[in-house]
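Session log. Operator J.P. requested a structure for one protein chain; no other inputs attached. Running the standard single-chain path with token output.
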Amino acid sequence: MLPFKLVYHKGYDLNLGEHVFPSQKFRLITETLLREGIAAREDFLAPDPAADEDILRVHTSEWVRKLKTGTLSASEIMKLEIPFSREAVEACWLAAGGSILAGQAALRNGFGCNLGGGFHHAYPGHGEGFCAIHDVAVAIRRLQFDGAIRKAMVVDSDVHQGNGTAAIFGEDESVFTLSIHQENNYPAYKPPSDVDLEMADRVEDDEYLDILIPAVQKALDEFQPELLFYVGGADPFCEDQLGGLMLTKKGLMTRDRRVFEEARQRGIPVATALAGGYARRVEDTIRIHVNTILAAREVALAFPSASAAGQD
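Structure written below.
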């Protein structure tokens, strides 16, 4: 058994068909974890869809209504960049429920890993870049509403800046946002995060890590969050179709492990969501995401939570 819980639902698949975003990856990650003996069935939690009241803590009632009734305009669908379907909407509500559940599990066990989510381009009133509902923001708002946490930090390692995250939390001193991304890439307009680490094209492992880790250390020490939400992007990979950085699989796993270590050695729980990943070979994307779970396992064993013995 893993020393923490994984969150997955077969409904995570957005059913996109032939699309650069391989939404079947959520199932393939799960199958790989089970097949390779990294996780057992009892390590998994199945989320319920987020309640509308939780979604509405982040998103406008108009946007929620449009998604639920399928009345998006042509321009709104163009911004979303995925085919609109009932399955896609249901997957977004499930992903948000999954990130809530991962956050709750992290507070109990030190780690909680959503095998979906990471939809960081969603704004309160519209979707962008394959993202309709901002699951991480919904999870943070729910945990704050419940009184489980007061302050949260988001560390986003997707190759694309988390513009939705920056826009949602831009005026909120209770949430610290850090994004490391390729400067010359989507989105064209990047609202300011609390910290934006903008990488030049073709940056490799060592330079990337030398910039990221000190920034994470400084932010954790100064902000002292009660929960770190990590958006683990697979798309800084050197063979990604939508990225222009040159990180290796080993470098990406080191990135994840180092961020997790910085949080856990300070006693800060970590919830993860898996974002991005458009490698030419879907197997590479799957391996990068599986490596995030392996990095979490390594760090969880090295820095056990005081409440880990009470896992459910």
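Operator note: The first strand starts at residue 5 and ends at 7.
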